[in-house]
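#lab-general

N.A. 3:47 PM
ok so I finally got the sequence cleaned up, no stray characters, all 124 residues accounted for. can someone with queue access submit it? mine expired

B.Y. 3:52 PM
send it over

N.A. 3:53 PM
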Amino acid sequence: MIGAPLHSDGKLTIVSLATEAGLRRNKLTHKHTGLKDLFYALVKARALLPAALPESMRARAAKQQQGLARVRSERDDLRTQAQLMARIIQVLEIENSKLKETNAALQRQVAARASVPDLTRRRR
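B.Y. 4:20 PM
back already:
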């Protein structure tokens, strides 16, 4: 548990412990039950170590958690703003295409009127 594993994958399991010790798993679990129980107790004690952190490390971890929460909140806000901007752009593109169609129709009307002479005007 302290050093690097030589014969196993290093996981804290009975199978890895048996492989590291050069034993078959059933020998460890059935014949040497005291070793198995000791191993589980050590693994459990190791899992409880973070609760015994010094006060400075707890404060730093709490500060990091707060920072992470702030960053996640900012990310969510930015994601919402990006979605809103995408919707606005889509609406503006639709309006722009409608304006272009209207402009083209007006230009056609102006061109049609220009080809007909204005008879209301009299030359003097």
